[in-house]
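Per reviewer request, we include the raw input and output of the structure prediction for the construct analysed in the revised manuscript.
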Amino acid sequence: MAQTLRVPEDAYFAVSPLMLFPQTQGSFEVYLRQDGEFVLYTRTGELFTAGHKRTMHELGVREVFVLRAQSARFRRYVEENLGAILADEAMPVRERAGIFYDVSVSIVRQAFTRRLPEAMGEAEFARIRRMVRGCVAFLSRSDGLRAVGGLVSHDYKLYRHSINVLVFAMAILQTYEVDEGFLVDCGLAAILHDIGKTTVPREILERSVKLSARDKDILRTHPVRGAALCAGMPLSGDVINVILFHHEKLDGTGYPSGIAADTLPLMVRVVSVADKYENLISGPRWQAGLSPFQALRALSERYKGRYDPEVLRRLVLVLSGAGLAGDGPDAPGGADGADGAPEAGGTVAAGRG
């Protein structure tokens, strides 16, 4: 741990130490930051042990650093190990649940601090964290951890997307008067809404160009596939409805049934907006994501009539709390959402389905 490297600061990216899983080997180097310098902590191929965790806890380490040049190795490490850990029946459920909780909360924290207004504060984050704990407790009593492990292994970006959708759904729901049970169900629905994509070929999910009509048809089967996968789990009807109907639109242009779904339950309407917004700001694999302002404008103009305007209005109000929705000449507002700045390049990313 004594080796110090003088490498430009932007050559590293920060990760939570919770992302270093017990008894696994990293194919990357891990650094600590001390007195403005980056100090080598573990070498490539070194085993992460309980001793490493204990040392970092004693030092008060809240983030470790990996070289950007090794980012692909780190991503593969998380994909391979987190999915395998969650699906490993030989590991006690409590241990697996703890790892799932730690990693999920780490992603929630990142999304909360980077994508939501500061005004929401620690109290709201604590509420989301409690809700995640409730979700993990439920998934630990069923086949949920194995299912989520399959989601992580199949496409880690999809898992991150699901956790981010959870964050935005919770942000919207904090403007409604709903009880804790409703929040936990909505959290479960957000985590599992795309579970059907684990049965879609990875080459379709990972394609770096726009999908063909045939591939789109295959991708659009994922809500039905997801509902079938979860049929044996003790989920509420609301959660199953979200998995099955989160791509239905109010104007009947959605799937799988194409119904004019103005009577869709609140949970479905909230997750649908959160899902589309997250897809827009993250962008598909072949295109950069939009800014919050551009994404809200796309939802209120390009996709007008497809999403619940009241749910969208509440998302605008939440994001406007710290100006996150207003990077154009006019901030979005009112029941109709955003207006003002032209979209970058005049186009809007369509997301990944």
